Amino acid sequence: MKHLLLLPVILLLFAFSENPVPVEPPTLKLALLKYNGGGDWYSNPTSLPNLAAFCNSQLGTNFDKDEAVVEVGSADLFSYPFVHMTGHGNVVFSDTEAENLRNYLMAGGFLHIDDNYGMDPYVRVAMKKVFPNQDFIELPFEHEIYHQKFDFKNGLPKIHKHDEKPPQGFGLFHEGRLVVFYTFECDLGDGWEDPAVHKDPEAIRRMALQMGANIVQYAFEF
Questions:
Q1: What crossing angle do the helices spanning 47-59 and 202-221 adopt, rounded to 10°?
Q2: Among 93, 103, 100, which Cα is nearest to 127's?
Q3: Is residue 25 pLDDT above 90, yes or no?
Q4: Which residue, 29, 34, 52, 121, is most buried by CB atoms nearer than 10 A?
Q5: Which DSSP symbol is given to 36?
Q6: What is the pLDDT of residues 92-134, one digit of tens each?
Q7: Are residues 72 and 101 in contact, defined by beta-carbon separation less than 8 angstroms?
Q8: Can you tell me the distance from the alpha carbon of 88 to that of 170, in angstroms, rounded to the nearest whole number?
Q9: Per-residue confidence at 19, pLDDT binned at 50, 70, 90?
Q10: Where does the pLDDT of residue 14 fall: very low under 50, low under 70, confident under 90, or very high at 90 and above?
């Protein structure tokens, strides 16, 4: 990341190498975004802990396996370089919350939004409040986020059927940097959950975790 606000934390966290050796104790947590409006921001409770463990084993990161929960309008948001947002329904940001999230993203933060089915019409309105002059742009398959540790030549993997449409990855940018990555018709978070939750085949779960690791790696390297 080119912004300096979060750089010291990032440098402590990441040292990608062929034989990474994590430093003890864990240096950072992945964060789950808590928002208002009645949507189930808390869905997929096992997903981020499993993604953290996968990143630790595959990328050499040193995430705490217990996620943090951070509210949109909280100053604590700036303590977490990577924030994940999910749900099935309504999302509402107040003016103050939208401003806080915008400042966080402009300062070097990264938000991954994963539609857990039914979130799409609401999250688009909410994010328009954060960046009024932007619309989500679909990322081409050549974008770097699909070609980190793991190579996804055809973009996002399809984890759950939903409306049986092809998965799409959308982005919002600040000064040329991807600051929000929105995964739609994909449901990566369900694929990150414990195997017993959705009973997905292991190959599907692994693709979901690999794409999740790509998103994390991209967020910290760009």
A1: 70
A2: 93
A3: no
A4: 52
A5: B
A6: 999 999 999 999 999 999 999 999 999 999 999 999 999 999 9
A7: yes
A8: 18
A9: low
A10: very low
Read off the tokens for 51: 């993604």
Residue with more model confidence, 18 or 37: 37
Bridge partners of 137, per DSSP, are 171
| Per-residue tokens: 28 | 């950072």
In this predicted structure, the answer to whether residue 9 has a pLDDT above a threshold of 60 is no
Please state, in angstroms and rounded to a whole number, the distance separating the CA atoms of residues 5 and 85: 21
Write down the pLDDT at residue 4.
38
* Helices and strands (DSSP H and E) totals, the chain: 7, 7
* Cα 207 to Cα 35, 100, 203, 204, 210, distances in angstroms: 28, 33, 6, 5, 5
d(C-alpha 27, C-alpha 199), whole Å: 32
Q: What is the helix (H) or strand (E) element at residue 171, kind and residue range?
A: strand 168-174
- How does 126-152 read in b/e, with b if 16+ C-beta sit within 10 Å? bbbbbbeeeebeebeeebebbebebeb
Answer for the pair 222, 81: CB distance below 8 angstroms, yes or no. Answer: no
CATH class of residue range 7-221: alpha beta
Judge if pTM exceeds 0.70.
Answer: yes
Domain boundaries, the chain: 7-221
